[in-house]
Every structure is written in structure tokens, then in C-alpha cells.
Amino acid sequence: MDCRICNLPAKKFGKDRKGQQRYRCPKCGKTFIEIQPRALSYMILAEEKAMSVLQHLVEGCSVRTTSRITGVHPRTILNLLSLAGEKCERLMNERIHNLRVKDVQCDELWGYVGMKEKTKAKKGKDETTVGDAYTFVAIERRSKLVLAWHLGRRTERDTVAFTEKLAAATEGSFQVTTDGFAPYKDAIVLSLGAQGVEFAQLVKQYAAAPETETRYSPAECIGCKKVPVFGNPDISKICTSHVERQNLTMRMQMRRLTRLTNAFSKKWDKLYAMLSLYFAWYNFVRIHQTLRVTPAMEAGITDHVWSIRELLSTP
Which of 139, 226, 241, 265, by CA, is between 20 and 30 Å from 105? Predict the structure, then answer.
């Protein structure tokens, strides 16, 4: 540790009341402590209070509920969410990269921002950050690790953007299974074909609903068809049950994705930040019930259960 004035090596000089190491310059006699990195960057909110806010958000509380419990203003909570989302996105990009995997499942989760797509059409709005918002998710079957995700529309362009992220997160050959969404056929081959992946689709067959019946959920599933698309996939491993169970966990842990409630995202960037926080928390902090460790530990990326503070310690 060098003196900030003389640029000479300083010697240890006890500790302050908070237990931080003090130093003293042998030349000028100035005492100082080593600058500690701030997990919250520019925010002046107390760290313990901030950790409590983020813990409530990832456990399924809404912004206003979190505000009532913690006493933090909703706008401060949203600013903290944006900061945490940026740090968690960098962490995921750094840690989930060029991994060797064996069995990957992909799916999309529906949500909306501001208003539903049919309401958007009625009002004649053409904003790209309003309306249906689909979260593409790729999960490794054995470790339950979320390898890649993407927030966008259910289009061919966003599907390719998602598969490119999956390609960056993995290396080598593995089997990948998706649902029957048609753009996957070209996107998987385009992004992952060079890796020699074994690609198959699980196409669900639904019964026709009676004309008089109205329902919120999809029609009754009467069967599934396993369709090999590329390479030589193992028929017995063609499955999307694990990623669909992950979709349920997302809806339970994020209030803005809960069905049949008045909770929804008002801003596209806040939904993106919440997803970034959730996936990092799910991989590194949340202990999986069946694994009894975190997905990151099961995949060999980390050797201990992280805290939310560790997620925010990303530079």
C-alpha cells in the first residue's frame, strides 16, 4: 500500500473502529485506510438494506410490497434493480462461457410490458418496448444451470439472437431439445451446427377446444411427438420437462411474471434488469432442492454458495 501523497510504501498502523486496516506513511506521517470497493457503486443506500431489498425481489415480492416491508422508496428500489441487473449480466457473461455440457433444453416464457399485444393493437401503438415479451431460456438438464437467456419477441430474429448466446456459453457437441417453435430449426443449425450438436424437437399435440368453451390456459395436451432435426439425437433424452419446470420457478420468483394478477412490468429495461438479477441469483445463490447445492456448484463453476453481496461485487 503506497502513500497517496508521497507515493512511498506505507506501513500498517493498527485498525479503525470498523476493523479496517490503517496505514501510515514513514515520510509525511499521514494515516489512511485502503479504499474499499463499493458494491452499490454510486448509491448511498446502506448495503444491508440493499441486500434485503434484492432478496425480497428475487423471492417474489413486488416493488411496492418490497417498499412497504423495507421502507425504501420505490424509485430507489428500481434504481438499485438497474444497478444489480448490470452487474449480474456481466457476471453471467464472464462465468457462463465455453462450458462443456451434455443435454440442453430450450423454451420460451410469455410475459408483457405495459400492455398485452391485443390492447396494443387496439390503441394503434407501434412501440417495440411495449406488448408481448418472451424470455428464451436454455438450461442444462443435469446441473440445472441456466446457460443463456434472451428477452425479445417470439420471432426468428430474436430466436437467432438467443441461439448465438447459447453458442457463446457452450463448446463442443451436445444434445439440444426445443419445443415445436419453427424458427428453432434454422437458428439452432445456424448458431450451433458447427459444434456438431444433436438437435431434436418435442412437438406437443393439443385437442381442439369446444366452441362454447373459453379458457385462459392452452387446450388439453393429448400427446407429444419426438422429431429429430439435426445430427443423431438420443430419442430417450428428447425432453423439455426440466426447462418447463424452470419456467414455473420463474413465475413464482418474479412477481411481474405471475399469471392472473395485476402485476406486470411497466418498462422493458426494468424487466430485463430483473431477469438478469434472477438468473444470476438462481445459478449462484439459490440452493436447488433436488441437487442440494446451487446449479453453479453442480456444474463446477464455483465451490460454495454465494450471497447476493457477492453477485454485486462484480467490478
Answer: 265
